[in-house]
Specification:
Largest sheet: 8 strands, antiparallel, barrel
Low-confidence stretches: 32-72, 194-198
Organism: Lactiplantibacillus songbeiensis
Keywords: Membrane, Transmembrane, Transmembrane helix
Number of strands: 16
Protein name: Lipoprotein
Helix content: 25-40%
Strand order of the largest sheet: 1-2-3-4-5-6-7-8
Radius of gyration: 41 Å
Strand content: 35-45%
Number of helices: 3
Mean pLDDT: 80
């Protein structure tokens, strides 16, 4: 009986050892499979990275090719400008011409300027509110039509080389106009008398306080006129003892027609930001007259 129990315990021990051995084999196989999988995934990642690099390189080559094509096309479009046109552009160049009241939108003042850099002609339109509205390079011209109309072939710098035609009329009496369907730009511009010394000399004559002549007074009110210079340029002030300051305005530029000086003014007090033209006539011996439709101002003044 005891011998039979001993044999039974031996058999159970052998069976338990066999089970432990089989479990060990199964665990080793599963571990081997798990170590193999990351290697496969890493291989796929390397292939994907290689493809991405290839795509990036192709994109760069395409972009470079487009840029070269665009530059080559524009270079072919550039032609020497008409000699007469160049003479006119030299006469108005490097001057920020101010837009005339008649073509302003919402009282926004724009400035037109032609200039040359690196042997190439450019045109730029700006405003204090919007900064650079358009900057274009003049590629060539289509010649002059009847009158003083020139048609310029342009390439936009601000709009990635887009081509358009700019109509340029002038310049005469310190005035020219521009027009193009591109961005619907249109305006008349005063480039003024660019002789700063003459401008200073003219306004320097009227820096002392001047009293209105009795012949132009309204309701016996005496007004006073004075031109003076500040950090931002020349100003003009009109006042009276009854009303105080009637108007103060900044002089943006001047033109001269041989008899009177036309001052382009920007109001500071009566209607801030509004522009108008003030006609100034020097009548000698310290006497002058000012006149403008703005606020119906008109009077003869004698410097005290």
């Amino acid at each position: 009986m005891k011998k039979g129990l001993w044999i039974l315990w031996v058999l159970l021990g052998m069976g338990l050892c066999a089970m432990i051995f089989l479990v060990g084999l199964f665990w080793m196989g599963a571990s081997s499979d798990n170590q193999t999988q990351p290697t496969t995934a890493s291989s796929h990642a390397a292939v994907s990275s290689s493809r991405a690099s290839s795509v990036s390189t192709t994109s760069s080559v395409a972009s470079s090719s487009t840029a070269v094509t665009s530059t080559t096309r524009e270079t072919k479009d550039v032609k020497p400008l008409n000699h007469e046109l160049v003479t006119i552009l030299n006469g108005v160049s490097n001057v920020k011409a101010m837009e005339d009241d008649s073509t302003m939108n919402n009282h926004e003042i724009t400035y037109s300027e032609f200039y040359q850099t690196g042997g190439r002609w450019y045109w730029e339109l700006t405003s204090n509110k919007r900064g650079t509205i358009e900057k274009g390079r003049i590629l060539s011209d289509q010649g002059k039509t009847d009158g003083m109309e020139w048609y310029l072939n342009m390439s936009s710098v601000t709009q990635n080389g887009q081509h358009y035609t700019l109509k340029f009329v002038g310049a005469e009496d310190y005035l020219y106009s521009i027009e193009t369907s591109f961005q619907h730009l249109k305006g008349q511009y005063h480039y003024g008398d660019n002789d700063t010394d003459r401008k200073t000399k003219t306004l320097d004559q009227f820096t002392d306080t001047a009293t209105e002549e009795s012949s132009t007074r309204n309701n016996n009110e005496v007004t006073y006129s004075k031109f003076f210079k500040t950090d931002d340029g020349w100003h003009w002030r009109l006042w009276s003892n009854e009303r105080g300051t009637i108007e103060e305005a900044r002089v943006d530029y001047r033109t001269n027609d041989g008899y009177s000086t036309k001052l382009k003014m920007m109001s500071i007090t009566a209607a801030p930001g509004q522009t108008y033209t003030l006609r100034l006539v020097d009548m000698d011996d310290g006497e002058y007259s000012v006149e403008t439709s703005f606020q119906h101002i008109k009077g003869d003044y004698q410097i005290n």
